[in-house]
Amino acid sequence: MRQTSFADMQCSLARTLDVAGDWWSPLILRDLYFGMRRFDDIARDLGISRNLLTSRLNALVEHGVVARTQYQDRPPRHHYQLTESGRELVPILMALTAWGDRWATPEGGPPIRFQHTECGHRFTPTVSCSSCARPITADTVALSPGPGARTGPGTALVHEFVPGAEPGGPAEV
User: Fold this and answer.
1) Cα–Cα distances in Å, from 164 out to 57, 161, 169?
2) Is residue 67 predicted with pLDDT exceeding 60?
3) What is the domain extent for residue 92?
4) Tally of structural domains, the chain
5) Which residues belong to any copy of the HTH hxlR-type domain (predicted)?
C-alpha cells in the first residue's frame, strides 16, 4: 500500500509516479506491451500476489493507462490492454531498460534486444530532442518554469535553476 500520494504536487514527474511509479506497475505495463492480456498470465509471469495485481491494475485502469474488457461472465474474467496513454509510456520503459542494461545488467547480458521495425536495425533506446533529434543528456538541457509552475511541495528547485527567479516566489516565464 502506498503511504504517500503525489497527486496534489505541482510536478508532472511526481504525478506520473503517482500513476505508474510503484515497483509493480512498470512491469505490468511491460507484460501488457509484450502481449499478455489475462490476469492469471500476468500474475504467473511476475509472481505477484493476486490482491496486489488487482490493486495495481485497478489503479492503472482508473488513471486511463490500461483498459479492462470482460471476456467471460461466469466466473467474470477480464483481459487488459494498454490505452493510448499506456502506449506512450512504452518508450520510457524502454529507456529505463537501456539504463538497466548499462548499469544493472543481469548475468549473461541484456535479456532483450530492441529492433526498430521501420528501419530493421537493432537499437539502444535513448531520449532525444523533439526538434533536432540529438540525444538528451543531463549536461545538454536548460530548465525554465513552464506555464503550470507554482510554489508548493516538490517545486522549490524549479526556481533555483532559473537565473533571477526568487525561491518560493511566483514563476515567471
Assistant:
1) 44, 9, 11
2) yes
3) 12-123
4) 1
5) 11-108
What's the pLDDT band for 142 if we cut at 50, 70, 90?
confident
Give CA separation, 129 vs 50, 71, 72, 115, 133, in Å.
40, 41, 45, 21, 5
Name the grid cell of 37: 492480456
Classify residue 131: in a domain, yes or no: no
CB burial string 108-130: b at 16+ within 10 A, e below: eeeeeeeeeeeeeeeeebeeeee
Cβ pair 46, 24 in contact under 8 A: yes
CATH number, position 99: 1.10.10.10
**140 inside domain:** no
Residue 84 lies in a domain: yes
Q: State the Cα–Cα distance between residues 111 and 9, nearest whole angstrom.
A: 36
Whole-number Å distance between alpha carbons of 144 and 165: 10
pLDDT at 4 over 60: yes
More confident residue, 24 or 145: 24
The number of residues in the chain equals 173
Single pTM value for the model: 0.84
51 in a structural domain: yes
